[in-house]
User: Fold this.
Amino acid sequence: APMSKPLISVIVPVYNVEQYLHKCVDSILNQTCRNLEVILVDDGSPDNSGQLCDRWAERDARVRVIHQKNAGGGAARNAGLDVATGEFVSMIDSDDYLEIHMYEHLMGLMTGDVDIAECDICLTELDDLAMDDGTDAKITVCPMEDAMRLHIRDEIFCQTPPNKLYRRETIGDIRFPEGNLIDDEYFTYKVIGNAKKLARSSACMYAYRQQPGSAMHKAFSVRRLQGLEAKLQRLEYLKLRMPALEYEAKFDLFFTAMFMMQACLRSLKDEELEQARRYIRSVLQQITPLHKNPEMQGYYLFITALLRGEISYTNKVIEEITKLYMKH
Assistant:
């Protein structure tokens, strides 16, 4: 008998998306790669999304539905991961949609030691974006540590799960934090760290719908500082597992802290601003002094030179930088 094709478990957290859900689920069920288990996790939607999910389950045997009390995207993805049976796993956002060859293309990259494959993301406001079918794609295959460096630099293998296909065993028991505003940042680096190799396709096959109401467009809140917490955890992880990347991770954390500081200044005031300031300061103190890295140029070198000084001097610099950024 011919080898049966491996199964892909596609996990879709569903919350309040009835106007987009159709496009999303159709783009999954119509994939040229047919061997799918589609797990729709209705996260207590107040609209008709839950009923729509049940209707798909009646129409297509590949669809199963989980209904749960509203607990957020992290909890919904976890519920899907807990029941997924496929050798491969994909996590799709319910307001986005896929090019029809996406799974076939990514499965083609999952050869040998490749445990995670990703394609490019296109940002769109359209319902019918024309995407790449993968035929002219440029493919890059990286050993895990190189991929991790690119991940830290936010070049490729970035935080977002939806444009990736994972071996289920590579995810293992790694899960998303629940009830967080920010969750990908706590998940992605650990899964990358479990992979032997990663593959990247330049083909744009995932349509990411930009909506004015999405989490990243909402006003900045103190909860966004969870992004720093996640990067601190990532730094600790890398110190143990990949010390060669420690500097790279510290550097990224430093600039993220600076960026957050500016955002806090623009959006917060009084007690909230003070709270943010204290937190950002404590983060900066944990990562300075920064040590010299020959790869860094210009402006970065100047900043790191400042931060390489004596501890007392470094503290003074942090104090000045925080003052500079925290002026009202």
Remarks:
- The longest helix spans residues 246-267.
- The longest strand covers residues 197-209.
- The CA atoms of residues 42 and 138 lie 36 Å apart.
